[in-house]
């Protein structure tokens, strides 16, 4: 008879889990690693626990399945907290497993934390493994993780419970129900939409799932409406589509386009992606969302809660003939992208880095993007052609995301080339994962915008006319660092070298790091033009 561990792992295998990411301890983690190997699930030994949960999250986002991460107790689960916060705020269904103590070990204080109390605010469920019905408990967690908003769950395990025979019969699983919108709300939405001739659509992170992108593309093509997208929704409709005019970041770059509309249709928009400021528009709002929000950013005139692609399909024939002209949409697109191309200095431009990488990579490549000033040119200028071909932390906006995300992409979707764009600060927080990439045969291209600074923070400091302090790093040669881990390495200090170096780097066919030395002041004008 299978043990509880084996039964739990087999259930995860049935859920199409193919990797468990983590840093193990010497207790129950070893049972799970052994059971995973027997079930055909690869254990990926990461260098940090935060990176493990980020990798599990990205694996879930790309596969549509559950991600799994595992740590030891005490320092392990504490170190994973930032990754779990990513899974919560960036809406990824991830199961986090960690060792606990036995019921009769009340005398132990070593490495002892109230781990469930630590995880409860960050997860949808946080429980110790059930002594009587662990499979039913796991199924409850799987259902909770898949219920909108998607998010993580925490399972704490102990040897006395997971090593016993799994006497519990596997419960029958039912399909996850999709909530249908209230018909009255649909009628209200149709009535509101019928009053507008120049709606603009803003797509958010919910638009990435399943067949929703196709429904969105069909809707904008039928109506003629322009589409903006949040960073998490980049690529839900190709950036090359003439009606896709650019990113929505709550800044000044897209403000003119939105203010020329007479209604805003928010499609799958999640306030976790909104900037920490008040909603800046007084236009009528029509919201289509899978769920309501704890911290609403605005009050919509009509809010339709439920299956968003079905709701969108129910609106298409209510839209009057669009008053938008193709020339207007083309000008919107040129204007928004143009604001990302402003220049200040004479050094290597971040915009040129993005342009040269885009030209050198295959069209179906994926990008992962860290938090920092470099995300502005990447997210505004990179052309994403399909859903989830651009990955970023937006709800949490954590640094140290791009490299772990690129590794997860290589393992989950090995046929898609991936470029990770990171700042020097973000890479220094997860540089050990360079070794993880090599160990597991991943071959991303990692572009480091090396300006020896926390640039976004430094820009805010300068705008407040404060003396420079606390935001600059000592210089680092990341090419030499990468070489020590077994990566191909390149370093660029002059604009004249940029194109040839990028072309040579792409041609290696190996895990490759390109260290590009940037003047941080290059970003000042760009930040002002895009964010305001």
Characterization of the model:
- The protein has helices spanning 4-14, 28-38, 49-63, 75-79, 81-89, 115-119, 134-146, 159-162, 183-194, 212-223, 255-259, 308-313, 326-339, 350-360, 375-381, 402-412, 424-428, 433-439, 455-463, 478-485, 495-506, 524-531; strands spanning 19-23, 42-45, 67-71, 94-99, 125-128, 153-157, 199-203, 227-229, 244-247, 263-267, 285-289, 302-305, 366-369, 390-392, 418-423, 445-450, 488-492, 512-517.
- With 532 residues, the chain is α/β, with parallel strands linked by helices.
- The chain folds into 3 domains: 4-162, Thiamin diphosphate (ThDP)-binding fold, Pyr/PP domains (Rossmann fold); 183-336, Rossmann fold; 340-531, Thiamin diphosphate (ThDP)-binding fold, Pyr/PP domains (Rossmann fold), CATH 3.40.50.970.
- The strands form 3 sheets. The chain has a 6-stranded parallel β-sheet, sandwiched between helices.
- Helix 2 (28-38) links the parallel strand 1 (19-23) and strand 2.
- Helix 1 (4-14) crosses helix 2 (28-38), helix 3 (49-63) runs parallel beside helix 5 (81-89) and helix 14 (350-360) packs parallel to helix 21.
- The model has no long low-confidence stretch (mean pLDDT 93).
């Amino acid at each position: 008879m299978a043990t509880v561990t084996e039964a739990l792992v087999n259930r995860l295998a049935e859920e199409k889990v193919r990797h468990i990411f983590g840093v193990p301890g010497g207790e129950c983690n070893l049972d799970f690693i052994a059971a995973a190997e027997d079930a055909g699930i690869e254990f990926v030994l990461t260098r940090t626990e935060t990176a493990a949960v980020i990798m599990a999250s990205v694996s879930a986002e790309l596969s549509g399945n559950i991600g799994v991460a595992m740590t030891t107790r005490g320092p392990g689960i504490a170190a994973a907290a930032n990754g779990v916060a990513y899974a919560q705020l960036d809406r990824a269904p991830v199961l986090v497993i960690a060792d606990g103590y036995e019921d009769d070990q009340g005398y132990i204080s070593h490495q002892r934390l109230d781990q469930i109390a630590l995880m409860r605010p960050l997860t949808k469920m946080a429980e110790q493994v059930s002594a009587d019905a662990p499979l039913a408990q796991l199924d409850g967690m799987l259902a909770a993780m898949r219920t909108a908003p998607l998010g993580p769950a925490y399972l704490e395990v102990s040897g006395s419970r997971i090593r016993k025979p799994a006497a519990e019969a596997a419960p029958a699983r039912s399909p996850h129900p999709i909530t249908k919108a209230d018909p009255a709300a649909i009628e209200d939405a149709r009535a509101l939409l019928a009053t507008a001739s120049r709606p603009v659509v803003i797509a958010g992170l919910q638009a990435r799932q399943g067949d929703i992108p196709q429904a969105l593309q069909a809707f904008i093509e039928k109506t003629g409406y322009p589409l903006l997208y949040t960073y998490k929704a980049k690529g839900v409709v190709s950036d090359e589509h003439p009606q896709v005019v650019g990113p929505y970041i709550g800044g000044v770059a897209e403000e003119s386009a939105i203010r020329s509309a007479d209604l805003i249709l928010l499609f799958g928009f999640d306030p976790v992606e909104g900037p920490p400021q008040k909603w800046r528009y007084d236009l009528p709002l029509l919201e289509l969302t899978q769920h309501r929000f704890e911290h609403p950013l605005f009050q919509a005139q009509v809010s339709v809660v439920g299956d968003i692609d079905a709701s969108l399909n129910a609106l298409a024939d209510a839209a009057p003939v669009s008053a938008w002209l193709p020339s207007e949409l083309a000008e919107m697109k040129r204007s928004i992208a143009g604001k990302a191309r402003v220049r200040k200095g004479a050094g290597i431009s971040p915009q040129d880095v993005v342009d040269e990488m885009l030209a050198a990579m295959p069209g179906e490549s994926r990008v992962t993007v860290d938090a920092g000033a470099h995300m502005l040119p990447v997210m505004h200028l990179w052309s994403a052609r399909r859903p989830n071909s651009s990955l970023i932390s937006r709800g949490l906006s954590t640094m140290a995301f791009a490299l772990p995300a690129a590794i997860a992409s290589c393992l989950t979707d090995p046929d898609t080339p991936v470029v990770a764009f990171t700042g020097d600060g973000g890479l220094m927080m997860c540089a050990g994962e360079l070794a993880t990439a090599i160990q597991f045969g991943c071959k991303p291209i990692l572009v480091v915008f090396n300006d020896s600074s926390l640039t976004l923070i430094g820009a805010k400091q300068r705008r407040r006319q404060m003396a420079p302090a606390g935001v600059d790093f000592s210089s680092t040669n990341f090419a030499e660092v990468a070489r020590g881990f077994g990566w191909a390495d390149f370093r660029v200090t002059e604009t004249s070298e940029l194109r040839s170096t990028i072309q040579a780097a792409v041609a290696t066919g190996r895990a490759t790091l390109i260290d590009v030395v940037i003047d941080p002041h290059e970003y000042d004008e760009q930040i002002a033009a895009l964010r305001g």
